[in-house]
Amino acid sequence: MRKILVISLLMLALMAFAQAGTDPRSIQLMGIPIEGPIDSLATALQANEFTEWGQSDDGEDFYYRGNFYGFRAKLMVSIAPESRLVQSAYVTIGPYSTQKMLDKNLNYFLYKMTKDHGEFTSRENSWFYIDDFGSIKMSVIDNDNGSRDIGILFLNTAP
After folding, report:
1. What sign does the dihedral 120-121-126-128 (CA atoms) show?
2. Is the residue at 37 inside a domain?
3. Considering the domain boundaries, does residue 127 fall inside one?
4. How far, in whole angstroms, is CA 104 from its chain's centroid?
5. What is the pTM of this model?
């Protein structure tokens, strides 16, 4: 009886995972795998209400705006020019002019990212998550005007 219960729970978990449509072998931005051709990622981003607002002159970076865990954010996606495969995604949120708001939102994003990916390690005002398929780095960026942004780099290292 216990064996049947365990198998049933395992099957339910697998069915829930299949319905979610996520690939555990890639770094993900709010459930969107950071992998594959830019056209596929662009479609997934647009389905999640990110809007494209340009690209770099060399065609290697694509810029989006959208909702990142409830906050308006900018997103830059970098690709390999010869293959047009996604290499990384970089989210910026801000600017913040007060330490109180920066700390509050930094803690919020760290909570959300830990919930989605697992434990982060901290070093010199940056937070890191690394697994076999990629890494995430969250840090505070000082701007020239005295304000600061929160930057989150998603780096796909999966083949």
Report:
1. negative
2. yes
3. yes
4. 19
5. 0.81
Q: Supply 103's token pair.
A: 């700390």
SS (H, E, C) the chain: CHHHHHHHHHHHHHHHHHHHCCCCCCCEECCEECCCEHHHHHHHHHHCCCEEEEECCCCCEEEEEEEECCEEEEEEEEECCCCCEEEEEEEEEEEECCHHHHHHHHHHHHHHHHHHHCCCEEECCEEEEEECCEEEEEEEEECCCCCEEEEEEEEECCC
User: Which residue from 133, 152, 138 is spatially nearest to 36, judged by alpha carbons?
Assistant: 133
Q: Is residue 138 part of a domain?
A: yes
Place of tokens 């959300």: 112
| Domain residue limits at 78 | 28-156
> Is 12 part of a structural domain of the chain?
no
For the segment 5-50, what is each residue's pLDDT rounded down to a tens digit? Answer: 334 433 333 333 333 334 456 789 999 999 999 999 999 999 999 9
